[in-house]
Amino acid sequence: MADERLKVLSQHLRGAATQYPGISPCDTSAVAVAAHPAINYTLNNGVLTPEQADFYEKNGYLVIEKLVSPEKLEKYRECFELLCKGEMPKPPTLTIMRDVAIAKAEFVPGQKAVTKIQNFQDVPEMMHYCRLPELLKYVEAFTGPNIMAMHTMLINKPPDPGTKSSRHPMHQDLYYFPFRPAERVVCSWTAMEKVHRQNGCLVVIPGSHKGKILPHGYPQWEGGVNKLYHGILDYSPDKPRLHLEMETGDTVFFHPLLIHGSGTNRTTGFRKSISCHFASADCYYMDKIEDVQNSAESELEEMARMTLKKRGIDPPTLSMKDIWYSKARLVHGQPGTMC
Ligand SMILES: O=C(O)CCC(=O)C(=O)O
């Protein structure tokens, strides 16, 4: 069973109004994850064509064109704007992140300084994205049928104020995650408008998903770095990189070890995308994270502690597992070890 402390903490982190009907914490000892004799990055369940599966196995990402309709993306955009303007109730679990260089200069409340909203698991209008059948159909090729939404974001890369702070340094998402196996975790990232080099599209290093977690930290950028934008230390820009230019609704699925980031937004408009990290409900939380993840844990802990303090709660300890357990939501299939 999930221990009592974890359940209580999780309830605090989740907030009062956040339980979904029919989804309750379940027995964490019940399901074991099958060991993978050889690493297979995709599941042979008939979703991907052999060419798509081969491409992902080799490169660690896969783009599916026009997967999400512009009408649905428009609804997420409207919801994002209402949240930014404070015209929609903001659940206590939602985090609004602001650009380090623009935040102080913004006088009018709105989206101008907002780089992203994180953890929208308690905003049903946005969680709609994580439950889209057309999206989950592909997610299932990586996670299997029992699917948890682990981490949700709407990224709003603002026009760069001249500091290059709109860049996102090259990193690996697994650095932040205390659950495994990595092969049963996948990110979906959907372009909410045309993304190209000028507005700071995603940049990936094909094949880098076959590596391990590399040491991360804040890059020494003159114009400042946004909160939690850790990058790979000693990153060598000589590695062959690929700019993923995409049309509205195009969606890239990528492995959590894939090295990726995004460039400066040199346009006058915002570059929006919506994304979710999914994991199999049959993944497991690690008892101990890898040493290389310690810097992520301390910063995530600090942020979660601040959220809890606002609610008058001061837990003696808070681990990566506590934090991620509280954010996880089942979006398809049966509950498993992750609930
Ligand atoms: O959308 C972007 O600019 C990059 C987002 C990203 O890589 C992340 O948040 O981990």
Short description:
The chain is of the alpha+beta class.
Description of the molecule:
The chain has 339 residues and is an alpha+beta fold. 23% of the residues lie in helices and 21% in strands. The chain has one domain (4-332): q2cbj1_9rhob like domain (Jelly Rolls), CATH 2.60.120.620. It has seven helices and 16 strands. The strands form four sheets. Strands 1, 2, 3, 4, 7, 12, 14 and 16 form an eight-stranded antiparallel beta sheet that branches. A four-stranded antiparallel beta sheet has the order 5-13-8-11, with no helix packed on it. 45% of the residues are buried. 2-oxoglutaric acid binds at residues 153, 155, 157, 168, 173, 202, 260, 262, 273.
Name the features.
339 residues; 23% helix; 4-stranded antiparallel beta sheet; Jelly Rolls; alpha+beta; binds 2-oxoglutaric acid
CA distance, first residue to last residue: 10 Å
Low-confidence stretches: 16-37
The number of helical segments is 7
Structural class: alpha+beta
Taking all residues together, what is the mean pLDDT?
A: 86
Q: What's the multimeric state? A: single chain
| CATH architecture type | Sandwich
CATH topology: Jelly Rolls
SSE pattern: HHEHEEHHEEEEEEEEEEEEHHE
What's the alpha carbon Rg, rounded to whole Å?
19 Å
